[in-house]
Amino acid sequence: MTPVVEKVLLAEPRGFCAGVEMAIKALTWMTRVFPPPVYCYHQIVHNAAVVAAFEAAGVIFVDDPAAVPYGAPLMLSAHGSAPEVVQVTRRRGAVVVDAVCPLVTKVHHEVRRAAGAGYDILYVGHAGHDEAVGTMAEAPEAVTLVDPEAGLGQFAPSDPERVALLAQTTLGLHEWDGVLQAARERFPGLWTARRSDLCYATTNRQEAVRVLARLTDLVLVVGSANSSNTRALVRAARASGVAARRIDGPGAIDPAWLAGAKVVGVTAGASAPEGAVRRVVEALAPNTVEAVAVAAEEEYFPPPPQLRALLLCLQAAVEGGCGARAPGRPGPLDDDRRWAASEALGLLGAG
């Protein structure tokens, strides 16, 4: 018999961030404009259900840009791509849309600027993560990867007075702080970005999960295993003293976890669909559901510029060639802010 959950506390904010919203909607547009297959370099976001929905719609995800046929429509993922990847794909693809999150673009810019100024760069991140790979490729000769758990190690810069510290956007605040303090002690002239590299959405979700940890017997984090920010939420909950588990959906819930868990907290990583959260809550079948809000998020990222240009050209062609309406009237892009990624996934039969 499944234990009875008296109450579920839902973290707010949770789930899709502005960068994920932008990327999912952009790839949905690609599937609507072009016949399949549409290609995407790396998973558009790190969520198995989202990736499966796009694959069913005719998207082919590749890890090698050379696997993209010449002339095929192509999207680059939200995690950011190495400069050489961008160059290769632009030579191969007829239409290439870069759906990189603007917050990741900011860190790419910081790497180029610091390297150009002669700094040795400490980049705090996870080896092999798509974002880390793409970011470090901006200046591989100047960047040293620092695992947040391993710390600075034996790092020895050519000039101790010219050291920069940057970070993968999806790190946990506690992961970043430890390395930051150690680097400041070792290199008093340390340069860091005036505005933290850590994603606002990651930070907000971690603060929400820490609040959940004080109020619950168990925290369930919805998201995929390859999602860095999802795993960081699990670590943040456990560090706050509560049992926490990552799940892709309700099928992954072990009834044994719920023994003695009268109040369960539920949150989701920044690439996890709200539909998965809803199904988890339904499976828990609590007597009551309450929201625990710690921040309001109103950030909005518009469609990638390459996609905006393409859609505006198509709109002009239809208006001019078919006389569908007077040129220059509002079109689909004008509604983008009001259109959610969950609706886009709904068009694909998922979410």
TL;DR of this structure?
This protein has 351 residues and is an alpha/beta fold. 38% of the residues lie in helices and 17% in strands. The chain has 3 domains: 7-16 and 200-293, 4-hydroxy-3-methylbut-2-enyl diphosphate reductase, catalytic domain (Cobalt-precorrin-4 Transmethylase, domain 1, 3-Layer(aba) Sandwich); 18-101 and 302-347, 3-Layer(aba) Sandwich (Rossmann fold), CATH 3.40.50; 103-192, Cobalt-precorrin-4 Transmethylase, domain 1 (3-Layer(aba) Sandwich).
What does this structure look like?
With 351 residues, this protein is α/β, with parallel strands linked by helices. The protein has three domains: 7-16 and 200-293, 4-hydroxy-3-methylbut-2-enyl diphosphate reductase, catalytic domain (Cobalt-precorrin-4 Transmethylase, domain 1), CATH 3.40.1010.20; 18-101 and 302-347, Rossmann fold (3-Layer(aba) Sandwich); 103-192, Cobalt-precorrin-4 Transmethylase, domain 1. 38% of the residues lie in helices and 17% in strands. It is built from eleven helices and 13 strands. It has helices at residues 18-33, 48-56, 83-92, 102-116, 130-136, 173-186, 200-215, 228-239, 274-284, 305-322, 341-347, and strands at residues 7-12, 38-41, 59-62, 73-76, 95-98, 120-124, 143-146, 163-167, 191-192, 218-222, 243-247, 263-268, 288-293. The protein has a five-stranded parallel sheet, sandwiched between helices. A four-stranded parallel sheet has the order 3-2-4-5, with helices on both faces. It has a four-stranded parallel sheet with strand order 7-6-8-9, with helices on both faces. Helix 6 (173-186) links the parallel strand 8 (163-167) and strand 9. Helix 4 packs parallel to helix 5. It starts with 6 loop residues before the first strand and ends with a helix. The model has no long low-confidence stretch (mean pLDDT 92).
